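@channel sequence for tomorrow's demo:
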Amino acid sequence: MTVKVIDIMSKKQPLFATVKQNIGHVRTIFMNNKVSILPVIDADEYVVGVISHRDLIDQTNDELRVDTIMTAKVYTIPSYENVDIAARIMKKQKIHHLIVTHEKKLVGVVSSFDLLTLVENKRFVEKNPSTPKKAKGAHV
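structure tokens (generated this afternoon):
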């Protein structure tokens, strides 16, 4: 059985910000929900950016709109994709979160923590399982 992205991401309704919201609102979402990244959506609910807690560190004007500081380059993955593809993208791009979409609309976020939990729980099938090596001089 192949594990899909939708199998490991949070089942809760994803949190998000809209392009017109202000930074103060986003700061409150981060503090109240203990998240470190929010997808940013437009009026049609398409993901147009991401904002992280790091983006807010030097921001003192909470009235600025989200779209003034968000990162417009977004890495997404379809919910039906295999988790190894998600891991490959995250490693290659050196990121800890991927925005999960279905028909280009936000359905969630998958994090490196989600992937580590998968490995920890061993909910995967090894492609080439290793075989135990015999010790030198051991007789069977």
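heads up for whoever presents: The two ends are 34 Å apart (CA to CA).
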